[in-house]
Amino acid sequence: ENGDQTKEPACFSSVIPGWFSEMSPMWPGEAHSLKVEKVLFQGKSDYQDVIVFQSATYGKVLVLDGVIQLTERDECAYQEMITHLPLCSIPNPKKVLVIGGGDGGVLREVARHASVEQIDMCEIDKMVVDVSKQFFPNVAIGFEDPRVNLVIGDGVAFLKNAAEGSYDAVIVDSSDPIGPAKELFEKPFFQSVARALRPGGVVCTQAESLWLHMDIIEDIVSNCREIFKGSVNYAWTSVPTYPRHVSLPFNIHGVIGFMLCSTEGPDVDFKNPVNPIDDSSSKSDAPLKFYNAEIHSAAFCLPSFAMKVIESK
Ligand code: SAM
C-alpha cells in the first residue's frame, strides 16, 4: 500500500533537483516549487497518489496526484474561510455535511460552532484520513469531535441518498476536477446538494482560481444560478501555496475561490454575516488565525475582470 519508495516521482526532480514542483494540466506552463527537506510518505491509494514531505519553509505538505492540498503554514486560511463563510452566514447551524476534506481541517473548524449538533463527512479516500492522522495531528484533530460521523465513500453517491431538506449547510472541500473529484463540479451534484439542504440552507464549495480557471468558474456559476433559488455568490481568499499565475518558483501568490449559495427560503445575505464566531466560546480551541468578520465581507469583493463574467451569468 505504501507504493514504490525507491522510484523518485517526476514532481521531485524535473524542475529543480531536491525541490517539489507542482505540475498539472490545470495550470500548464507553470510549476510552483518548494524545497524538500525529507519525504515522509509515498503511497498509492485506489484513487490517487499520496505524498507527504517536510518542506524547508511551509512545514509538512500533503500532496495528492502531484497537487498540494495543504501545508502546515497556510492551511488555516483555506480551512477557516471555506467553513466560516457559510456557517457564520446563517443563524444556529445544527446539521452540517462535509464532502471530501479527508485531512480533517474543515471538521476542526466546524467544531468551533457550538450550535452544531451533527457533522457528517463523506471522504472517498481512507488513505488521506490515515495519513493526516499520522502526519498532521493539528489538522486531523477535527476527527476527534464526538459530533463527527465519518463515512468513507463517494460524495456524489452519498448526497444522492441523503434525506431531502436535511442539512443546514453543506461544505464541499474537494480536490480539483481531475480525478475522483470531477463529478463534484458538475450540475447533477449541485442538484443533489440543493435537494439535501433545508429551505434557506447554504452550500460552500471549493471553486478554483480567478487567475487560472475562469472557464470552470463560469460553468459553476451558471449551474448554480439555475439550481439555487436563494442567493449565488463567489468569494475568494489568499492561500500562498495554491496555484498562481506566475511561473517563477519563488513568487508565491496563490488564490482560491469559493461558491456560496443558498436555497429558496429565509434570505441569506452572505456578505453580512449574522452568526459571528466567538473565539472564547470553546476554551479548548486554538484561536482563529485568519478568519474575522472584516475578511468575511471583503472576500466577496471581486476584481473587475471577474465581476464582469460572474455577474453576467
Ligand atoms: N482541506 C484541503 C486544503 O486545506 O486545501 C483541501 C483538499 S481535501 C484533502 C480534498 C479531498 O477530497 C481529498 O481528500 C479527496 O480524496 C477528496 N475527494 C475527491 N473526490 C471525492 C469524492 N468524489 N467524494 C468524496 N471525497 C472526494
From TrEMBL:
Keywords: Polyamine biosynthesis, Transferase. The keyword Transferase applies. Pathway: Amine and polyamine biosynthesis; spermidine biosynthesis; spermidine from putrescine: step 1/1. The active site is at 173 (proton acceptor). One of its GO terms (biological process) is spermidine biosynthetic process. Residues 17-263 form the PABS domain. Its EC number is 2.5.1.16. It holds the Pfam family Spermine_synth. InterPro entries: PABS, PABS_CS, SAM-dependent_MTases_sf, Spermi_synthase, Spermi_synthase_euk, Spermidine_synt_N, Spermidine_synt_N_sf. CDD domains: AdoMet_MTases (cd02440). It is an enzyme of class 2 (transferase). One of its GO terms (molecular function) is spermidine synthase activity. Belongs to the spermidine/spermine synthase family. PANTHER family: SPERMIDINE SYNTHASE, SPERMIDINE/SPERMINE SYNTHASE. This is spermidine synthase. It comes from Brassica campestris (Field mustard). The lineage of its organism: Eukaryota, Viridiplantae, Streptophyta, Embryophyta, Tracheophyta.
